[in-house]
Specification:
This protein has about 350 residues and is an alpha/beta fold. It has helices at about 30-40, 85-90, 120-130, 170-180, 195-200, 240-245, 280, 290-300, 325-340, and strands at about 10-15, 20-25, 50, 75-80, 145-150, 185-190, 215, 225, 230-235, 255, 270. Strand 8 and strand 9 form a beta hairpin. It catalyses: O-phospho-L-seryl-[protein] + H2O = L-seryl-[protein] + phosphate; O-phospho-L-threonyl-[protein] + H2O = L-threonyl-[protein] + phosphate.
């Protein structure tokens, strides 16, 4: 490659699986000028750009910082995160394929016997055989499973905002970071996979460094069932996951969703979360995820989640260990120390 100017700077931007060469910059240009040039090449507006490895003394440089102070080598590759305006608009608008929400107050009356009906179990078996799961991060041995809805659970998808990030439920990343210590995390939304992927990218979930999502499930993994009161409704049967992964079962799985009907095939494993709506009014006072993070910590040592009543999760108190258990654990701890110190 031939450079015509002594102080010319050429940078390669890696974004969305592609590389873009940014030319016609000089060392006297600023980071803001670089962002404008990136905008011309990629379509991502400067305020949407997050240049991950562009650093000055370990910190992200200001827009007014001159490129000469960064001492970049010719052809330096910059990793960028950012969304196009049309993608943000798609993710901020209600999806066309979202199912109608039925009155959910009395849905628990329908729970009796539905989960054991052969016709619905056959549908689950078909999903296990035919539904393809894209593994994002490998399941970790010994971890329990947390399955999360998106709309009104993690995100207010009906309110308007300049950025989707403003509609994120408070303490989302703190909650997921805490849960990840003990649980594998799966996202299941009653909409399309494209919508899920864009929403997780918009919220910063898919690229967060403190936790990982094992996989996403969309509306195609759901099944339809008939209830006398509401007719045909779509539900999220956890049996689809249990049929594909031996390490997960009703004993170690919990699902959060703002709609109780989604639990009809596994009522004992569902926790109905308070919906997060009117984000601008409730952002400063919503503490639901902080309380649920504590609940997940409290129950993680339960051997069988079937023994829990998630409808009354706020009243749950961890069981106190008896003296025999405490003494046994202390003995095991001592054995471990002796073993690790042996030569």
């Amino acid at each position: 490659m031939v450079y015509n100017m002594e102080n010319e700077v050429k940078i390669v931007v890696k974004w969305s699986g592609k590389e873009y060469e940014i030319c016609n910059l000089s060392e006297s240009d600023s980071v803001g000028t670089l962002k404008s040039a990136i905008h011309k090449e990629t379509g991502v507006r400067p305020e949407r750009q997050k240049l991950l490895n562009l650093k000055l003394k370990g910190k992200t440089p200001e827009d007014g910082c001159q490129l000469s102070t960064l001492k970049l080598k010719q052809g330096f590759k910059v990793m960028m995160m950012g969304s196009l305006e049309e993608d943000i608009a798609d993710a901020s608008a209600p999806p066309e394929d979202i199912p109608d929400v039925v009155n959910d107050l009395d849905i628990e009356d329908e729970e009796v016997a539905i989960e054991s009906r052969e016709v619905y179990l056959a549908k689950i078996e078909r999903r296990v055989r035919e539904y393809k799961i894209n593994i994002l991060n490998e399941p970790r041995p010994g971890k329990k499973l947390l399955v999360l809805d998106i709309d009104y659970t993690l995100y207010d998808h009906r309110s308007s905002a300049e950025t989707g990030y403003e509609l994120m439920r408070p303490f989302l990343h703190e909650f997921l970071t805490s849960a990840y210590e003990d649980y594998d995390i799966v996202i299941w939304s009653a909409t399309s996979m494209k919508w899920i992927e864009e929403k997780m990218k918009l919220l910063g979930v898919s690229t967060h460094s403190d936790y990982k999502v094992v996989f996403y499930l969309d509306n195609l993994a759901m099944i339809s069932i008939f209830t006398p009161k509401y007719g045909v409704v779509q539900v999220k049967p956890l049996g689809v996951i249990w049929g594909k992964f031996d390490q997960y079962s009703s004993r170690n799985t919990i699902m959060f969703d703002d709609i109780r009907r989604n639990f009809l095939m596994n009522p004992g494993n569902g926790l109905k979360i308070r919906p997060f709506k009117q984000a601008h009014l409730n952002r400063d006072k919503d503490r639901e995820l902080l309380r649920l993070a504590k609940y997940l910590k409290d129950i993680v040592h339960e051997e069988d989640f079937n023994s829990l009543d998630h409808k009354h999760w706020e009243k749950y108190r961890p069981r106190k260990k008896d003296k025999h258990t405490v003494k046994k654990e202390a003995g095991n701890s001592g054995d471990n120390r002796d073993t690790s110190g042996a030569r």
